[in-house]
Design goal:
Number of helices of chain B: 11
Number of helices of chain A: 9
Strand content of chain B: 25-35%
Structural class of chain B: alpha/beta
Order of helices and strands of chain B: HEEEEEHEHEHHHEHEHEEHEHEEEH
CATH topology of the largest domain in chain B: Rossmann fold
Oligomer: heterodimer
Largest interface: A-B, 27 and 32 residues
Number of domains of chain A: 1
Amino acid sequence: MKKTVKCYRTFTDFRYRLLLIVVVPAAILGLRAGAGIWIGDRYAANAALAAGGMTEEILDFLCCLFLMLFDLLLDYLAFGGIAAKGTDHLGCLKTSARGIPAMAATMRADQVRRLVESVAVPLLGRVVSGTFPGAQGIRKAEEIGYLLAVSVSLYFVSTLAVSVARYWEKLEIGMSLAGLLIIVLGVFWAVGQFWPWAVLAAAASLSAGASVFFYRKMIGRWEESFYDK
Amino acid sequence: MRPGRCGGYRMQQRAPQKAAECEGNVEFTSVINGANICKKFKNFTLDIPEFRIPKGFATALVGENGAGKTTLMNILAGVRLDYQGKLEYFDEREQNVEKVKERLGYTAPGLYFMPQWSIRQVEEVCGLLFDRFDREKFRDICGKLNIGDGDGKKTVAKLSDGNRMKLMLASVLARETDCLLLDEPASPLDPLMRDGLCQMIREYLESGDGERSVFFSTHNVSDMENVTDYCMILERGRIVEQGFVEELKEKYLLVKGEHCDAEAAKQVLYSFSGSSYGFEGICLAKDLDRLAGMDVKVETATLSQISVAVMKAYTGLQLMA
């Protein structure tokens, strides 16, 4: 565990970690809290708005969307093009027997960080806005199921986005991909409101599969770089 | 062994026990031994039946573009694994990959560090990957070579090609290694820095007391000549000539003569270059007698002249008339 953390700290810039682990989640939660207060005031002032009932869910989606986009952008700054073909960014890693294993440990640590944030930030968003399941008469079980479905879906979509984007050196390709994945996230979010437990099960399976698949694919790409094709 | 140019004199100074004359061929111990190294490409095959890098010396690998220099360097550094043959490092029976890579220092042209890494991050990465990496020494070398702005914040992407090479050199020289493998280290460097590189190589070898070796590939034979002890000339995947520089200079001589003798001399010389004023070329020492009767001047050839002559003899390149 210590070695993995050391590898993660070595291969990621302090600014990357500060932004991704502290600043961006804090900003999203701050905006969420502020939006919650504003909506609360508006709820009190406007019965029609209160009757809408979808506002917290829309904020959940926006929270996930921003987290995914910032994750993709900051991942590019740290690992952009690391799995790209025809480049040899890993030249220095290949000259050490520890190089590839150290980078692999960093990738694993980054995935754990992504999972924790994907689950924690949407849930904390509900806490800071005072709309966590159980509060204000919100039905607990289904809401928790929905929130977990959205969180795990966010993890799946973020994993997909960064894993694929790492195969290209250009940020534009990653951001274009993000545009497509927003639709996927939207589908999970929409369906999750009606069948939260089914979406949670599907998202969890897809997340596990995607995590393992892309991790092994990346390690395989690095090991292949020792050979000409 | 007579004192010749810098290389020969240095050879005597550095490792007299390691080189013993034997019928004009100097025997040496090897830092890397290779046997039947073979790698097939579409257009040619890298085929080296026997390969030895002398220990305690600076060896230059010279060859034209596409000769196989970088491929050979990558194989030696363990960065390319798809080859046939056997390599032994440091004369050890048990070849432990981690220990061997710890003792080798390798630099390559092109992108070697992630472009988004800062110089400080390069230091951190090297500290993680190698046990015997000295951070103070790394910072000191970066300062002396004027890499970045001194605060370590500049990223690799913002460095020029020359500064990236300097950064790579700093990263390997800051480690305790026994053999440096440098692929075209002089190419992106300015003339002043090339001289600095030669100085760094000399200091590295001298600090090792005969136990350290350097193997570098180069196009800039003339710039690197004053640090080269041993030379291998690679042409189309094969080592066509090799030897200590002093031996090569005794084997290949520079001959200059008058235009009237050009036609006759052309039949004798190993390489020939003529004009309306005269001719010059490389002559094998054993063929010197055949120039008797001609008004020629015999001089010591430079390593650059010898390399070009040998490469010309083996190249498939069609040079424009």
